[in-house]
Specification:
- This protein is of the alpha/beta class.
- It has 3 domains: about 170 residues, FAD/NAD(P)-binding domain (3-Layer(bba) Sandwich); about 120 residues, FAD/NAD(P)-binding domain (3-Layer(bba) Sandwich); about 120 residues, 3-Layer(bba) Sandwich (FAD/NAD(P)-binding domain), CATH 3.50.50.60.
- The protein is about 30% helix and about 30% strand.
- The protein is built from 13 helices and 28 strands.
- The strands form 8 sheets. A 5-stranded parallel beta sheet has the order 3-2-1-7-21.
- The structure holds flavin-adenine dinucleotide.
- Flavin-adenine dinucleotide binds next to helix 1 and helix 9.
Length: about 450
C-alpha cells in the first residue's frame, strides 16, 4: 500500500484524486502542489463570476485550510513542480525535494493562443483560472468594446456575460458556424441568432490575424477588417499541458495528450508505469462511440478520472475508467445547448456516414404555463443504425435529457431498439406526455430507411 502520495495540480482532477486517496487510505500522507493561488474551484462558473452573478468566494468550494483541517491533505499553493525524478521517486517543487510512493499528474490544459502578433499586449487575456477571471473583470471596468476570439461554448458564455455588463461584444470565429466541433450547424444557428438578437456581433470565417496596439490592445485584425477594442479574450481551445509527462518520457498519443490505461496509469515506450497516474485535461480518452481515441476535456471527466487515479494510487483493488461519450451542456443566454457522442462534424472526422432525426416540441405540456421551445436531434450510423450522438437546444431541462441519450449512445443501442425500449417520465410542468426525443427517434428510423 502506497503511503506517500503526491498530486500535481489542484483542479477538478487533482483535488478529486487527493480526496479519493485520503478517503480510501486515511493513513496515507497526501500532498498537493499547485501553481494556482486558489484550489477546488469551478472554472466552469468563471463567466458568471466575471459578470458578478456569483461572488468569487462562491466559486471556490474549499480553501487549503479546509483541506488541511478536515481532510488531512497538505496543499502547497503558488508552488510549481519543477521536475520529477522517477528513479528516486521525488519531485522538486519550490526548490525542495519531496518523496512519493505514488504520483498523480493532473496538470490540466493550457489555452491555445494562436501565434499572431500582439497576443502579449496589455488587456489581452485567456480564461482558465479564477485569477484570469478577476483580471478580466478589473480590465472591463474601463472598457467598452470587447473582442472574443473563438465561438466555442466558453467564448459564447463569456460573450453573454460581457453583453449583460453593458459592453459592445464582437465574437471572431475562424469556422463558418458557432460551437463548430461539437454542435451541428442547425442547432448552433439557433444560438447564434439569439445572441445576434441581443446585439452581439459575429465575424465568421475569420481567423484572428493580429492584435494591434502600442502599450495595450487597441484593435484586432480579422477577415481584412480592423475591429477597435479595449479588451481581447482568447477562447481558442485547450491543449494538454505536457511539460511534466514529456520530461518523464511518457507516451503521448496522436491527439497530443497522455495515453492512459483504464487504471489511469501512463505508459513509457509501451510499458505501463505503475506508480504514476494521470487524470484530467492532459489525458487522451477512448471513445465510447467509435473505436479509437478522443479528447474529453470536461470538468465531469476530470473529476471521474481524478477519483479513479487517487483510488488506484493507494489501493491494490483497482477501479477502472471506461470510454467516454463526453456529454456536455452550456447555458448561453436564454438557451441551454447540450450534446453527446458525435456531432455530424466529428462523425465525418471518423469517416462514418450518419442519418439524423429531428423534432421540436416544448419543455412542458403544451397547455402548461412557462413551457419553452425544445429541439432535439439524434444521429445514427447509417450502416449499423447505432445511435452515435444527440443534441438538444431548449429553454430548460437539457441536462437530464442529454444524459438519457448518452446511455443509449454508450450502450450501443440502435435507433429501432431505442424507440422500442425508451420510456419517458411525464408531469405537465416538466415534460410533454411523449417526449420529443421519441419523435426524433421516429424521424431517424424513417431517414435511415432512405
Ligand atoms: C471558462 C471555462 C468554462 C468551462 N465550463 C465547463 C463546463 O460547463 N462543464 C465542463 O464539464 N467543463 C467545463 N470546463 C472545462 C473544465 O473546467 C476542465 O475540463 C477541468 O477544469 C479540467 O480539470 P483539470 O484538473 O484536468 O485541469 P485544471 O483545472 O487546468 O488544473 C490543472 C492544475 O495543474 C496545476 N499545474 C500545472 N502545472 C503545474 C506544475 N508544473 N506545478 C504545479 N502545479 C501545476 C495548475 O496550477 C492547476 O491547478 C470549463 C473550463 C473553463 C476554463
Amino acid at each position: 500500500m502506497a503511503n506517500e502520495i503526491i498530486v500535481i495540480g489542484s483542479g477538478a482532477a487533482g483535488m478529486s484524486a487527493a480526496s479519493a486517496a485520503k478517503s480510501k487510505c486515511p493513513e496515507a500522507k497526501v500532498t498537493v502542489f499547485t501553481e494556482d493561488e486558489d484550489v477546488a474551484y469551478s472554472p466552469c462558473a468563471i463567466p458568471w463570476g466575471i459578470e458578478g452573478k456569483i461572488p468569487w468566494e462562491g466559486l471556490v468550494m474549499h480553501t487549503p485550510e479546509f483541506y488541511a483541517k478536515e481532510r488531512g491533505i497538505d496543499i502547497h499553493t503558488r508552488t510549481t513542480v519543477e521536475s520529477v525524478d522517477d528513479e528516486s521517486k521525488t519531485v522538486t517543487a519550490g526548490g525542495a525535494q519531496y518523496h512519493y510512493d505514488s504520483l498523480v499528474i493532473a496538470t490540466g490544459g493550457k489555452v491555445f493562443v494562436p501565434p499572431i502578433s500582439g497576443a502579449n499586449l496589455k488587456n489581452v487575456f485567456v480564461v482558465r483560472t479564477v485569477r484570469d477571471g478577476k483580471n478580466i473583470q478589473a480590465a472591463l471596468k474601463d472598457a467598452t468594446r470587447v473582442v472574443i476570439g473563438g465561438a466555442g461554448v466558453i467564448g459564447l458564455e463569456l460573450a453573454v456575460a460581457f453583453k449583460e455588463m453593458g459592453k459592445e461584444v464582437t465574437v471572431v470565429e475562424m469556422m463558418d458556424q458557432v460551437i463548430p466541433r461539437i454542435a451541428d450547424r442547425d442547432m448552433a444557428d439557433v444560438i447564434q441568432k439569439d445572441l445576434e438578437g441581443r446585439g452581439i456581433r459575429f465575424v465568421m470565417k475569420a481567423p484572428l490575424q493580429s492584435v494591434n496596439g502600442q502599450d495595450k490592445v487597441e484593435s484586432v485584425s480579422a477577415a481584412g477588417e480592423t475591429i477597435p477594442c479595449d479588451v481581447v479574450i482568447f477562447a481558442t481551445g485547450v491543449r494538454a499541458n505536457l511539460e511534466i509527462p514529456k520530461a518523464l518520457g511518457l507516451d503521448i498519443g496522436h491527439l497530443n495528450a497522455v495515453i492512459a490505461s483504464p487504471t489511469m496509469n501512463p505508459y513509457r515506450r509501451g510499458r505501463l508505469v505503475p506508480d504514476i497516474f494521470v487524470a484530467g485535461d492532459l489525458v487522451q480518452c477512448s471513445s465510447a462511440v467509435m473505436p479509437g481515441a478522443t479528447m474529453s476535456q470536461l470538468g465531469s471527466t476530470a473529476v471521474k478520472q481524478g477519483m479513479i487515479a487517487g483510488t488506484n494510487a493507494v489501493c491494490k483493488d483497482k477501479v477502472l475508467f471506461g470510454e467516454v461519450a463526453s456529454p456536455w451542456v452550456s447555458c448561453i443566454g436564454d438557451n441551454q445547448i447540450a450534446g453527446t457522442g458525435l456531432s455530424k462534424g466529428l462523425a465525418s472526422w471518423y469517416g462514418i456516414d450518419v442519418a439524423e432525426g429531428k423534432a421540436e416540441g416544448t419543455t412542458r405540456a403544451r397547455y402548461y404555463p412557462g413551457g419553452l421551445p425544445y429541439r432535439v436531434k439524434l444521429l445514427a450510423d447509417r450502416t449499423s443504425h447505432r445511435i452515435v450522438g444527440g443534441q438538444i437546444v431548449a429553454g430548460e431541462g437539457a441536462t437530464g435529457r442529454i444524459e438519457w441519450i448518452t446511455m443509449a449512445v454508450v450502450c450501443g443501442m440502435t435507433a429501432e431498439d431505442f424507440l422500442v425500449k425508451a420510456e419517458t417520465a411525464y408531469c405537465p410542468p416538466t415534460s410533454m406526455v411523449r417526449d420529443p426525443v421519441l419523435w426524433a427517434a421516429e424521424d431517424l428510423i424513417k431517414n435511415l430507411k432512405q
